[in-house]
Amino acid sequence: MNQSNPWQPGASIQALRQRSELLAQLRGFFHQRQVMEVDVPLLSRATVTDHNIESIQARNGDVAAYLQTSPEYFMKRLLASGSGDIYSLGKAFRSAESGRRHNPEFSLLEWYRCGWDEHQLMDEVAELIATLVPDIAVRRCSYADVFIRHLQIDPHLTGLVDLQRLAVSAGSEAWAEESRANCLDLLFSVLIEPHLDDGLVLVYDYPACQAALAKCAEDSQGRRISRRFEAFLNGVELANGYCELTDATEQAARFAEDQRLRQQSGKAAVAADQHLLAAMEAGLPECAGVALGVDRLLMQLQGKDSIEQVMPFSWARC
Amino acid sequence: MSNYSTNEFRSGLKVMLDGDPCSILDNELVKPGKGQAFNRVKLRNLNTGRVLDKTFKSGEQLEAADVMDTDMQYLYTDGDFWYFMEPQTFEQHQADEKAVGDALLWLSEQDTVVVTLFNGSPLSVTPPNHVELEIVETDPGLRGDTAQGGSKPAKLVTGAVVKVPLFLDQGEIIRVDTRTGEYQGRVSAK
Fold first, then answer.
1. Closest in A98, A174, A240 to B60, CB measured
2. Which domains does chain B have, with CATH numbers?
3. Which residues of chain A carry a pLDDT beneath 50?
4. Rounded to two decimals, what is the model's pTM?
5. Among A182, B27, B172, B182, which one is least packed by beta carbons within 10 Å?
């Protein structure tokens, strides 16, 4: 049946069957490895402070609440309570993000491994993808390697002014005074990502300025890096993972910095999640975590170029 | 004129970019998982005809371009300019050779064409998708002559040269698809 009517799903029934299969396969993968599934709340009084993410707001009676942009904060509260290895396979929400690869409501597979570092977790991401695409080519390289290979510059050593100049030529004048993190992001997305090798590419040792919730460290050449990695499947950003920050003081400082950036760009203030900070003060076990876009994964597996073709109803049809 | 923000960019929207009027062909939101959103936009420069890709920060603005597509009647040419008239207002516009472009291969007086106006002046002319034009010059096709695969060049009254079947002669009127320059069929016998 032609599904051009807005009341109909954007994905064909065949695509929905494949979606159903994938969800079962993902659950099977973690069940086999004895990683416990948790279904944490989607509604909370708190949300992320990241200044690049806007949460969808809701009201429960008189109380202002947010739809969660990822299950991370609740999952860390479980980890601090002795849950052991856990995974979440469910929805996440991000305001106003619509496009060929974005829908405000989307599906995230997020999991945490206690006592693992980010490299071990990268291996598991590769294993997971390999169960879905046997013989997939897997490449691992550092953020610096990728920049040197594609743009002939060292992202950790290049001065801000030079990065801004490159960002302006890759983008527009609007990047002339952008931060280091934003310039690098633009260069990566516009000049590097489209040229990444096919198959699974795992990029690790991100710049310290893009650490988010990852631990920071020094790499083998003494450069300050964050223990963060990303997975790209056929040139499409698929997953984001960290060796998780466990220091509550450092986390509080990063939240404060986020809030400063939010205020600076005129965005609404977002209070730091006090429950998360309390959990971290009580003690978050050493762990590595990763979040993977399930819809993006499906798009790659099914060869679809629009997210609306892999989910029952994208926002346009809701 | 007002400005448009990236979240208003739609296919067909007319904007100014680096001094040239452009038509937006495509607007794609890109948001890295932990980064700032931006838009990859495909535009056609209406002055040069070239298609370009530009990346804008989400929320960036472009000035709206005063570009309007208007149906007009083609009147005549004096060799330097081509003259068109808006049928409702009788207002006349003159377009130079650059603005008329390839359309001059297909224009017959009284034809209704689309004239793209930029700040009130003709920027480009789009002829109808199909036109009927007389063959003014062609070699008589000898029956059985398939040396060129069964077609021969024919010059039309406008100066355009089109490949036609061998059986057509001077004076015959043919239908041509202006988008491809291809013969579509015979309209009337001599």
1. A174
2. 3-63 (2.30.30.30), 67-126 (2.40.50.140), 130-188 (2.40.50.140)
3. 1
4. 0.81
5. B182
Length, in residues, of chain A: 318
Return the structure tokens found at B154.
């024919």
Domain region containing A285: 13-134+250-317
Question: Which of A263, A230, A280, A226 minimizes the C-alpha distance to A72?
Answer: A280
Answer whether residue B145 shows pLDDT above 60.
no
B33 interface with A at CB cutoff 8 Å: yes
Contact residues, chain A, for B60 at CB < 8 Å = 172, 174
Interchain contact, B34 vs A240, CB within 8 Å: yes
B19: which chain A residues are within 8 Å (Cβ-Cβ)?
A: none
Inter-chain residue contact A186 with B55, CB threshold 8 Å: yes
Q: Residue A172 and residue B54: Cβ atoms within 8 Å?
A: yes
The answer on pLDDT for B115 being more than 90 is yes
Number of domains into which chain A is organized: 1
Over residues A14-61, the pLDDT tens digits come to 999 999 999 999 999 999 999 999 999 999 999 999 888 899 999 999
* Arithmetic mean of pLDDT over chain A: 93
Sequence-distant (≥ 6) Cβ neighbours of residue A100 within 8 angstroms? A305, A306, A307, B28
Number of H helices, E strands in chain B: 1, 16
